[in-house]
């Protein structure tokens, strides 16, 4: 399995270095993807149509985002995977990271948002966020900071977090009504 992970990672990272414009774009997407997605979620708070349901989805996306990143911190207590550039697998286009490679926080965060929207029935926005999540995840491998397996693990953690939130944070409950009526 490790050989497949390395092969996929090398294939994607091997695309880097051939076009300065694409390299710049991938570095930019990697750096700004998560904040842009978070802003896209937050700006929907004042959306007019079906405001109560949309706000529930937005809060669920926020909880999924936070839970996913929290789960990553637990995983990092047990799994200490070196970055692919430290193992000579990739060429790095950005500064080195001080933390471990598995799972990818960027993938976890973006896939948690997409999954929350999809699981709560906001399909159009959910698929748009899913496309953005795939782009961010791809960029993390392209720039050399993650193995493909790190990104897959992060995506899985994000989806699991969204499933947990779906099971616990119910629409129409007293807590939900309190949160969604703010502003």
Task: Explain what the structure shows.
This protein is 69% helix and 0% strand. It has 183 residues and is mostly helical. It has a single domain, classed as Vanadium-containing Chloroperoxidase, domain 1, CATH 1.20.144. The N and C termini lie far apart (50 Å). The mean pLDDT is 94.
Overall shape: elongated
The succession of helices and strands, N to C, reads HHHHHHH
> CATH superfamily, called what?
Phosphatidic acid phosphatase type 2/haloperoxidase
Briefly note the CATH topology name.
Answer: Vanadium-containing Chloroperoxidase, domain 1
Q: Give the end-to-end Cα distance, rounded to a whole number of Å.
A: 50 Å
Tally the beta strands. Answer: 0
Provide a count of the helices. 7
Number of separate domains: 1
Structural class: mainly alpha
Domain Phosphatidic acid phosphatase type 2/haloperoxidase: 56-166
Pfam families: PAP2
Protein name: Phosphatase PAP2 family protein
InterPro entries: PAP2/HPO, PAP2/HPO_sf
Q: Gist?
A:
This protein has 183 residues and is mainly alpha-helical.
Search tags:
single chain, 183 residues, mainly alpha, Vanadium-containing Chloroperoxidase, domain 1, 7 helices, elongated, Phosphatase PAP2 family protein, membrane, transmembrane helix, PAP2/HPO_sf, transmembrane
Topology:
Layout: H1 2-13, H2 20-42, H3 51-78, H4 105-119, H5 123-142, H6 148-168, H7 174-180
Helix pairs in contact: 2-4, 2-5, 3-4, 3-6, 3-7, 4-5, 4-6, 5-6
